[in-house]
Amino acid sequence: MSTHSFTIDDQPVSFKDGQTIIQAALAAGIFIPHLCYHSEFKPHGSCRLCTVEINGRKMPACTTPAAAGQQVLNHTAELNGLRRILVQMLFIEGNHFCPSCEKSGNCRLQATGYWLQMLDTPFPHFFPRRELDASHPDVLLDRDRCIFCELCVHASRDVDHKNVFALSGRGIHTRLIVDSPSGKLGDSNLSATDKAMQVCPTGALLTRGEAFHTPIGKRLYDQQSIAESSFKTAAATFKEQAGE
Ligand code: SF4
Ligand code: FES
Predict the structure, then answer these.
(1) Closest Cα to atom 7, ligand 1: which residue?
(2) Which fold has domain 1-127+214-244?
(3) Nearest-atom index, ligand 2, CA of 46
(4) pLDDT given for residue 52 in this prediction
(5) What's the mean pLDDT in 19-32?
(6) The domain 128-213 is classified under which CATH number: 3.30.70.20, 3.40.50.720, 3.40.50.12370, 3.40.640.10?
(7) Could you tell me the CA-to-CA distances from 110 to 103, 144, 147, 204 in Å, in that order?
């Protein structure tokens, strides 16, 4: 496999054939904020948080192939400002109450907000009404916290081979739906150990009974930044994919 190089914020980055910009960046220890990208799954480019400027054009780093000679801008005031607005919009479109959420400290949305130095939102909150599903003995689905990243949809389909989840509706009416006779998790074949449960970046899908086992202050993003955590996840995946 041949390697070539391009630059991110003037720093040379080498890449392998077939790699996307975000894959090459993460492998090189350069963080590009992302929410719907996960190194184990094919990217689908829905959140747009990973938008970078490639030779003057704004494009998602998770779906754009790396190419020799590209000049990529990543950490600019403009791009981080746009990313902050995207995260602020996710907060106002859902019902995210971090101080009372079990996932606080382990939540990618919250950690991304901190990383982007988001302190509040200038937009009015929608406070949408979304259905809570507490019908499963081992799992809770709190749709208030869903950011429609589709990672559970892909994990349930491609890894668990169960197809439990799908997105339905458009815009503010988008909802995560469950494939079961009643539409409830309780009569789906989801298990708390499914990959779909592990990939949810927010507190939308929670394993019951874990709650505050790990105290605040000792959680993932209390111990490491979202950048460090992303490098580790990507490195583990790339190693496995390379069969090392
Ligand atoms: S439940 Fe979690 S993984 Fe699934 S779409 Fe919502 S935020 Fe993403
Ligand atoms: S991470 Fe690239 S569009 Fe979501």
Answers:
(1) 146
(2) Ubiquitin-like (UB roll) (3.10.20)
(3) 3
(4) 98
(5) 97
(6) 3.30.70.20
(7) 9, 14, 12, 13
